[in-house]
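We treat protein structure as text, and this decision shapes the records that our systems exchange. The tokens are whole numbers drawn from a learned vocabulary of local backbone shapes. One such record is reproduced below, unchanged from the form in which we store it:
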Amino acid sequence: MKATRMFERTKELIAGGGGFTLAEVMIVAAISVVVVMSVVVAYVGTARSWNGTTGLLNIQREASLGVEVIQNAVRPASSLTVSSGVNGDSLEVYYSVASGDSLAAEFYMDDAGNLLDINGATVSSNLDSIHFTVVGSQLHINAWHRSDAGTPNRATDDQAVEIFSTVSCRN
């Protein structure tokens, strides 16, 4: 008996005797809007997180490469000279030659926040400050790198990295 009644009801639905009420359609639409909005919010949050992490990794890499260039120049040095400038410290690296010490490398920060070498080539960018301290034959480097990794003109998106390193002169 039950199978016959189900068969009759199915025939009615197929024939157009049934359908969705306005209330059912509205409920399904509301649930669909909530699901779509949840997906959009999750996507936006993930994209922001990705951009922030990528920006931080970029300035960490930039800072590390800049310090590595300085370290490679300082290791074979015979002496170092640090001068205080308008934009931060500058470093002069001298190598021992037959006639005495010769200037081999120089590093300083320009007005745009770039770390430049003796030839004016950019070694690292996005510097806020750089300070060199010489203690005996060791050079201490302290640099702040900053970048707006997210939305321009929003300080809350800015990323900053402080890098501190020590390198010894071998000569």
The two ends are 103 Å apart (CA to CA). The mean pLDDT is 84. Helices lie at 2-14, 22-74. Residues 96 and 165 are 24 Å apart (CA to CA).
